[in-house]
Design brief:
The protein contains 6 helices and 5 strands. With about 150 residues, it is of the alpha/beta class. It has one domain: Rossmann fold. It has a 5-stranded parallel β-sheet with strand order 2-3-1-4-5, with helices on both faces. The N and C termini lie far apart (about 30 Å). This is AAA family ATPase. Pfam families: AAA_33. It comes from Tolypothrix bouteillei VB521301.
Length: about 150
């Protein structure tokens, strides 16, 4: 069974920290991070760059990790339902057979506080927009996930 862990949460929610903790316990896991890819493609994790260029690299890395048969962690906000469905459908098409959504549900006020302490800050209006997207269309099994875990801070 080729597994994908789809992280979901606001910037500053703790998704990347959670992914790193998983990697310590299971070093064979592989992380695909949109922030890391932005850094590689565009010279900085905060540089948004063209989404399609980023997305094609995510898909390329998905194909690579499916071949390794290791558990893959997809570290991105995945705040929009439409985008989550696209990720899930593409992952299944590539060969992931079991997809678990992990919603790191951290209060927006805590995400904002953590964001202020970061060197690379996300604009507050972006965090609020993503918060509304997750509030109005929260992750659900109907999106095509096999499992959905919700961690509330």
């Amino acid at each position: 069974m080729t597994k994908l862990l789809l992280l979901i949460g606001l910037p500053g929610s703790g998704k990347s920290t959670f992914a790193r903790y998983l990697l310590v316990d299971c070093p064979q896991m592989q992380i695909i991070s949109t922030d890391t890819i932005r850094g590689q493609l565009f010279g900085g994790e905060a540089v948004q760059g063209p989404w399609l260029v980023l997305w094609h690299e995510v898909l390329r890395q998905f194909r690579e990790t499916v071949l390794s048969d290791n558990i893959t962690i997809y570290d991105a906000t995945n705040a929009q339902r439409r985008h989550r469905r696209e990720v899930i459908a593409s992952a299944r098409e590539i060969g992931f057979t079991h997809i678990t959504g992990i919603w790191v549900d951290t209060p927006v006020w805590l995400c904002l506080a953590r964001n202020k302490k970061r060197q690379r800050q996300v604009p507050e209006e972006v965090i609020f927009r993503m918060h509304r997207q997750l509030r109005d269309a929260p992750p659900s099994l109907e999106e095509g996930l096999n499992e959905l875990l919700r961690f509330s801070v």
